[in-house]
Amino acid sequence: MSYNEKLANRVREIIALTHDRVEEKKMFGGLCFMVNDKMCVGIEIERMMVRLDPAVYDAALEKDGCTPMDFTGKVMKGYVFVDAAVLNTNKKLDYWVQLALDFNKRAKPSKKKK
Q1: With the C-alpha atoms ordered 15, 17, 18, 21, is the resulting torsion angle positive or negative?
Q2: Which CATH number fits domain 5-104: 3.10.180.10, 3.30.2090.10, 3.90.1150.30, 1.10.860.10?
Q3: pLDDT tens, the chain, 114 aa long
Q4: pTM score, two decimals?
Q5: Measured between alpha carbons, how far apart are the two ends of the chain, in Å?
């Protein structure tokens, strides 16, 4: 599995400023940051997955480099991909990570496999 390590390090620094319950898991062909046992942000080679409030989903899709997450061939509302190329400043990256962290407080945890 490969992912954009530079982008992952930048995300790691942002999350570490405010959260200490963070787990990094290799999944989806990349690296996923689990905050409070909930999927939050994922890093691939050329894009970042962001889990956000479905209420802001349509507005998020209007931002540069943002596309629906269709990892399984089915669009998943509440998840988007953001091209790594548009995350070229700390301000832009922080915007997306904060969207994910804000929703993480209200997001339902994933169902645990038994």
Answers
A1: positive
A2: 3.90.1150.30
A3: 689 999 999 999 999 999 988 999 998 789 999 999 999 999 999 999 999 999 999 999 999 999 999 877 888 889 999 999 999 999 999 999 999 999 999 998 866 655
A4: 0.91
A5: 25
Phi, psi dihedral angles at 60 (to 5 degrees): -65, -40
Enumerate the domain spans of the chain.
Answer: 5-104
7-14 contacts at long range (C-beta below 8 A, 24 or more positions apart): 7/43, 7/48, 7/84, 7/87, 7/93, 8/43, 10/87, 10/90, 10/93, 11/41, 11/43, 11/48, 11/93, 11/97, 14/93, 14/94, 14/97, 14/98
Beta strands in the chain (DSSP E): 22-27, 30-35, 38-43, 47-51, 66-68, 79-83
